Amino acid sequence: MAVQKLNITDFLEKAKTLPVLDVRSPSEFSHAHITGAISLPLFTDEQRKVVGTAYKKESREKAIKIGLDYFGPTMRSMVETVEKITKGAPQEVLVHCWRGGMRSGAVAWLLDLYGFKVYSLAGGYKEYRRWINRQFEKKRNYKIIGGYTGSAKTLLLHQLEADGHAIIDIEGLANHRGSSLGGIGQKPQPSQEMFENLLGRALAKLDEAEFIFIEDESQRIGNTQIPLPVWQQMKESTVYFLEIPFEKRLAFLSIEYGKLPKEDLKDAILRIQKRLGGLETQNAINYLESNNIEACFGILLRYYDKWYLKGTLSKKSMIKIEAENIALQQNAALLMKQIWKK
Fold first, then answer.
1. How is 68-96 classified by DSSP, letter by letter?
2. In sequence order, what are the residues at sequence separation of 6 or more whose Cβ sits closer than 8 angstroms to the Cβ of residue 27?
3. Residue 296 a catalytic site member
C-alpha cells in the first residue's frame, strides 16, 4: 500500500465516514481544528517548539533528527491508539498536519507500514482554512429573522428547521445568545478560528438550499465575530421582523432567563451600566435581589428594545410581521406566508 494524497474536496467527502487524525500539537488542535477530527499529536507543544527552533536556527537535518528522537518511542502507542479508534483492525484513516508536510508524512508512513490504508490532505490544515474562507464568499439567499429581545427568534429558527427548512444557528455555533446576558449558562465560546470552521462547515452543507434562515445579529457575538463576507450578505438581505407585544416577550424572557444564577445576572447588568444609566442599573439590581424578576427584566427589555430599534434603521429591507404571542408553529406559518408572497 501507499499513502494517497487527497485534495480538500475528496478529503472532506471521505471524512464523512472515516476518522480524521490531526497530528498537529495539542495547543494547535485546541485552538481550532477540522470539525470531528481526533487529536493524535506527533509532538507535544514543547517538543514542537524545540524542533521548530532547531529548524530555524540550525538546519532541517538537525530538526529531523531531533524529531526522530521524539517520534521513535511513541510509535507503538500511536499505532495502538489508532487501532482503538478503528476498533481493533487496521482500516482506512485520514491524516493531516499544518501544511501537509513532515509531521503528517511521518505518521502516515508509520500507519501505512503497519497496515492501515492512509489518505493525507494535500496542503494540510492550511488548505482546509482556505476552503472554509471560500464558503463565506459564496452568494447565498439569506432570510433574516428579526424581532425585539424576547421574541424567541432562536426557538423559531429551530421550528423552521423541524419544518424542513435550511437554517444556520449562529448563536448556537458561538455558544452565546448575543446580549450581555448571552454567555450565562453557556459552554465556553470557541476561538474565532474554530467558530469560523464550524460556520463554514454548516454553510457548506446547505449549498443546495433555496434559501437559509438566519437570526438577525450584531457582527460581534460575545467574543466571536461573523466573518465579514457573511455579515455583508446578511446586511443586504431582507429582515422578517416579528412584532410581538412587550408583555408577551417580558413573560417569556422572565421564564427563560429568570432561572439563571443571580450573581451572573447581576454581573451582566453591571456590564451595561454605562448605557443603562446609574438609576436604572440600581433599580434592576434591587428588583433582582428582591426576586421581582419581571420588574428587573422589564427595565432590561426596554433598554434592549431601544438599542434594537436604533439598529433597525440601517436595515436595507424589512418586512414586519404582527404576531400575537410566542407561538412557534403559528409564527413560523406567518413567516412562511410572507416569504411565499415574494
1. HHHHGGGHHHHHHHHHHHTTTS--EEEEE
2. 45
3. no
* Selected catalytic residue, list 23, 97, 203, 239: 97
Task: Specify the DSSP element, H or E, that contains 65.
Answer: helix 60-71
Domains of the chain are 4-132 (3.40.250.10), 138-341 (3.40.50)
- In this structure, is the dihedral angle defined by the CA atoms of residues 304, 306, 311 and 312, taken in order, positive or negative? positive
CA 292 to chain centre: 35
What pLDDT, in 10s, does the model give residues 164-219? 999 999 999 999 987 777 778 889 999 999 999 999 999 999 999 999 999 998 89
Q: Which amino acid is at 292?
A: N
Q: How far apart are CA 204 and CA 285, in angstroms?
A: 44
Helix (H) or strand (E) holding 128: helix 124-137
**What CA–CA distances, in Å, run from 116 to 85, 89, 286, 317?**
12, 8, 64, 55
State pTM to two decimals.
Answer: 0.92
CA distance 267 to 285: 10
Among 11-15, 64-68, 118-122, 141-145, which stretch is predicted with the lowest mean pLDDT?
64-68
The DSSP letter of residue 118 is E
- How deeply is 40 buried, as exposed, middle or buried, from its count of CB atoms within 10 A (0-12, 13-18, 19+)? buried
Task: Give, to the nearest 10 degrees, the angle between helix 102-114 and helix 60-71.
Answer: 40
DSSP characters over 196-221: HHHHHHHHHTTTT-S-EEEE---SEE
